[in-house]
Task: structure prediction
Amino acid sequence: MTITFAFKKATPLFLSGICLLASRVQAATGANSLPADWIDPDTGHRVIRISPEPDSASLYFHQNFFSPRGDKMIFDAPSGIAVVDLKSLGHGTPKVSIVVTNASALAMSRIAPEVYFRRNGALCAANIDTHAVREITRARVTAINCDETFVVRTINAEDPSGKTPKPEARTILPQSERMFPGRTNLSPEEASAARKEDGLSRQLRNQRCQAFVFTNLKTGQSTTNGYQYAWLNHLQFSPTDPNLLLYCHEGTWHEVDRIWTIRTDGSEQRLMHPRSMDMEIAGHEFWSHDGKTIWFDLQTPRSQDFWIAGVNVKTGKETRYHLERDWWSVHYSMAWHGKLFSGDGGDPGQVAFAKDGMWMNLFRPQRDGSIVAERLVNMSRQDYHGADGEPNGNITPDGKWV
Result:
C-alpha cells in the first residue's frame, strides 16, 4: 500500500526537511491501522502520516509540489488531487482536502494557488482554495512554463531544413561488458542492472529524430524546433525564466550526454554537463528554486564515485558535493533557501549497489565541498522496484519537513 508521510526531527533544535513518500507498510489491516504520528526508532525523527487514504502518492521529484506562497502542498490520492495545509503539520491531524476528483496532478502553478491537471484532452487548472476549475488549452501538453505563457510537448519529426543530419548507427556493446569489464561472476543485482541497461541501450543504436512543439498560450501559435536524434524526456521549464526549458537525452546514462537546455524559440541549445571520462553518468536533473542552478546526480565513473552536482545556468560553473556510497539516492531535492538537500536512498539493486542505502537522508553542504549527512527514516521495508516505487522526496518551503 502507499501512504503519504512527512518527517521531522523529534527535538525542536533541529530542522530537517518534506517528502511525499510512497512507502510499503507491513500492516495487514490497512492505512488506518497506522499511528498518525510516531518517532522512527532508528533515527529519532518524527514521522507524520499525512494521507488517510491508502495508495496516495507524491508527484515525481522534479515536479512542483508547493503553492507559490509555500503554505500548501498537493499530492495524488485515490479520491483525486489532494492538498494539505503545511502549517497544520505537527499540530494534530493534518488538514487535507480533495481539490478535484478523478484527476492526477501535473504540477502546482508558480503564480497562482492552482494545480494543473489533464481532463478530456485539455490542460486545466483547479484553485486549491475554491476548487474552481478552468480550462487553459486543448493543446497536447507535457509541461507548462512558470508564467503560463508556453506549453511544450515532443514529437517524432525530421528536420525539414536538412540541418540535422542523421548520425551513423552506433555499435553498443553488451552492458555487462560496459558496466563490469572483465567480470563474469556478476551478482544477481549486477546482472539485473545490466539487463535493464541493455533494454535502454538498444534505442541508441539507430535513433529517431525528435523535436519540441512549443505552443504560445496567448496567441495559440505552435512552433516546432530543437530537432535532434535523441529520446527527449524529463521536460522542465525554469521556475523563473519562462522561455528556458531543461530536458534530457534519455537512455543509458553512461552512453548519452544527458542534460540540456533550449529556449522556446529554439535558440541556445546547450549541453549543460560535458562528459569528462568514459562511464561517467549525470542525470535526474532538477532546478534550484531560484532558477540559477541545475542540480543532478553525478558519478565519476558510474557506480564508483558519487556527487550531488550543480551547474550555474548563466556561467556554466559547476559545484560538487561528495557522497559516500550508502548516502547515494535515486532522487535528490533542494530546499527553497538552498542550504539543504534531501535524498530518498536506494536498495542494493540500484546503481550505487549500496549495502545500507535504504534511508531517507538529509544533507548539509559544506564550504569545502563535503556533505554532512543525517538519516531521517529507515526505509528497509520499502520496495523500490515494486509496487511501492521510489520515494521521491522533497523539502517543504520552510525547510522544516521532508
In short: The CA atoms of residues 23 and 105 lie 19 Å apart. The two ends are 20 Å apart (CA to CA).
